[in-house]
Amino acid sequence: MAVMHRSWPTLGAFLKEHRRLISPRAAALGLHPRLPVRHGKGVTQEEIAEAIGVSRVWYAMLESGAALHTSPRLLARLADALGLPDESREALFRLGLPELASRNLDAALQELSSSISALRSVARRVWSATSEPEILTVVAEAAAQTFPDSDFAGAFKRVQPGEWEYPVLFGGQRVRTTLVDLHAELFAGLSAAQIDEAMLYGALTEPGQVGTRDELHRNLTTKPRIDKAFKSAGFEGANFLDAHVKSREGVEATIFVNYVDGYRSFSALERSLLGSLADLASLAISEKR
Questions:
Q1: What b/e string do you get for 201-229 counting C-beta neighbours within 10 Å, with b at 16 or more?
Q2: pLDDT at 4
């Protein structure tokens, strides 16, 4: 059962309501069978997350209204798991990809066309790259060019559990030194798992996941420590946009843009563009292994 002909304020509200409307007697969520012990009970966030192949934390953030990057592929899996009819599937895609519902369609199409051209150029360079560092350099450079007003941009990468580095950074040596000092303060006394949670936000599942500082830090147990370290480094008012890169083997890196002073709002198209760069990098790294 699904709600028809209703205007939904947010993607989170839509998901919560349609999850609630799934019959407790449902034996499967799309093609994913429910555990017998769950039959007769309301469908949980964890069940939906498992059915679509993401973490419960990531799905919970989606329901809470965090503006995470959602790909058409993920939205299709969600629609199947929720058992949506055509009308509700259309509503889900409008909410999950708001750039498609721009009021100023001509301007949106022009911007979209420009972004697609830029992505095609980046895709050619990514697929001709011969190594993972070269792939990360290409997408980080594209991110820096997409956000020319950013204070710095680049990619950070997990070398091993609890150890991170910045193989690509557009912003100069002073920024690199500042980031090293910030990490030293942030990571002091933390376990490898806690360090990785602070860097991955505890919500990493989908390649191309995108989020801002507030969205990605809000549920972290290490948030007070992160805020203190940011303040010490002079980044107290900073905001950033991050997009995760993954391969078949797991976590690879994160590409980002950072604004040190003041709040920088990000459009849906900008989020999608950064997420698409991360998607390209994820695919290329997987294929070259």
A1: bbbbbbbbbbbbbebbbeebebeebbeeb
A2: 44
Which fold, 105-287? Beta-Lactamase (3.30.450)
**CA distances (Å), origin 62, targets 13, 75, 106:** 10, 11, 29
Q: Is the pLDDT of residue 102 over 60?
A: no
pLDDT confidence of residue 26: 93
Q: Buried (b) or exposed (e) across 103-135, using 16+ Cβ within 10 A?
A: eeeeebeebbeebeebbeebbebbeebeebeeb
Collect all residues with Cβ–Cβ distance below 8 Å to 206 and sequence separation of at least 6. Answer: 54, 58, 69, 71, 74, 244, 246
Contact 280, 245 (CB under 8 A): no
Distance (Å, rounded) from C-alpha 218 to C-alpha 211?
11
| Phi, psi angle pair for 33, to nearest 5° | -70, 140
Give the number of other CB atoms < 10 A from CB of residue 176: 14
Per-domain residue ranges for the chain? 11-96, 105-287
Give the global pTM. Answer: 0.63
CATH of domain 11-96: 1.10.260.40
